[in-house]
């Protein structure tokens, strides 16, 4: 991570390993879903910043981290902002962690106790990322994707996953 004067530290490389390491170290969290572990799933650059899904025993959230691009916007912890992604607008809440730095998240599954196992959690994460970026996330910058399946809300996304319209 590096920091520019007056801005959030930037993650110059894929933050997946950093996030997994951090959440695996948490010992004082309330009991979660014992069938889940920690995983950072399908992180990719979007307009120069990082977006992906983080799975833990306590939550499954879409994470947005600063990478030096124009998708990120500094806001105080606890504040909400709306971010235009290729699939639609998503509400993110700002947070800060001494190890990770500032990040923004959007909850996907509440309560996480409803997730039957890690395979199901990973499937949710991969499906969400395919919903956000319909083409493979291994492209150098997913902002270049043009074919987009519109999903405007989490509810609509999960209805689509369940085969409902």
Structural class: alpha+beta
The helix content, as a percent range, equals 10-25%
Low-confidence segments: 142-152
Q: What is the straight-line distance between the termini?
A: 42 Å
Radius of gyration: 15 Å
In terms of quaternary structure, what is this? single chain
Strand content: 25-35%
Descriptive account of the structure:
The chain is α+β, with helices and mostly antiparallel strands. The chain has a single domain (2-161), classed as 2-Layer Sandwich (Yope Regulator, Chain: A). Helices cover 19% and strands 30% of the residues. The radius of gyration is 15 Å and the shape is globular. It starts with a strand and ends with a helix. The relative contact order is 0.18. Mean pLDDT is 83; it is low at 142-152.
Describe the structure using short key phrases.
single chain; 165 residues; alpha+beta; Yope Regulator, Chain: A; six-stranded antiparallel sheet; two-stranded antiparallel ribbon; 19% helix; 30% strand
Question: SSE layout and pairings?
Answer:
Elements: E1 2-3, E2 9-10, H1 16-24, E3 39-46, E4 49-55, E5 60-65, E6 80-85, E7 88-97, E8 101-109, H2 118-132, H3 154-161
Antiparallel strand pairs: 1-2, 3-4, 4-5, 5-8, 6-7, 7-8
